[in-house]
Amino acid sequence: MERKLTSLEVIGMAIRSEEDAARFYGHISTMTENELVRAKYRQLAKEETGHGKVLVNLYTKMTNSKEPPPRIPGEPDTAEGGAVPDEISGSLEDLLKLAIDRERKARDFYRDAAAQATDLSGERILRYLSDVEHGHELMLKNELEAYHRDTEWYTGKEWPEMVHVGP
Prior knowledge:
This protein is mostly helical. The protein is 67% helix and 0% strand. The termini are far apart.
């Protein structure tokens, strides 16, 4: 964070960040024909949406208001840096690299915000979200390794007709 933000500004930025991340993972899920991989990114999108809901609840609790958080002036207006650049929107490998970087930035954002939190509840939520984003970063590094190991399978270009995974 370049400038100090109020708790409400942090929550507002975090909400938009989680919304952006959900859209981002939804986009990645459309970039593969592999159902296992596609399901993973759909699940990530769902998790990010859930984080956003937790943050909206925290915001409304802090403000006793149903109004959405105000926009923070300046750029970026999310923890990860905003929209996906057009030049990489069609490259799955580049999107995975960007996703790893964004999860790292989100982890750092939440960690720094937790350190500045003035209430224990907010600090706990932000610290927890920092840990979750770190988990996403590690998982995405594994996904990038899987992509490099077998790009044809990962993208679904060599996908068997029927696969049973699980019990």
